[in-house]
Amino acid sequence: MTVLKANVAPGLRLRACGVTDVGRQREHNEDSCSMVIDRGLFVVADGMGGHQAGDVASRLATSHISEFFENLSPEIGRA
Predict the structure, then answer these.
(1) What string of DSSP letters covers 15-73?
(2) Sign of the C-alpha dihedral, residues 22, 64, 2, 78?
(3) CB 8 within 8 A of CB 14
């Protein structure tokens, strides 16, 4: 579980939590989530259960998208 806190606007606080669950069909969890709070970004990727390396695909998707937004210039799109 990931819990992040940030002040996004005067008088407004945001608390976010990302949790995934293996569910009833699979033996391991292939889902992934990521947050970039200061950009207001929440990324969720379904792991394509039953397909080879679905967990790798979902982890790559969330990490690359998050890294892209974390590395943007500070003047662009801050929440």
Answers:
(1) EEEE----TTT-SS---EEEEEGGGTEEEEE---TTSTTHHHHHHHHHHHHHHHHHTS-
(2) negative
(3) yes
Quick count: other Cβ atoms within 10 Å of Cβ 58? Answer: 24
pLDDT, tens only, 52-77: 888 889 999 999 999 999 888 776 65
d(CA 5, CA 28): 29
> Does the global pTM surpass 0.85?
no
First to last CA, the chain: 23
Q: Is the distance from CB of 35 to CB of 12 less than 8 angstroms? A: no
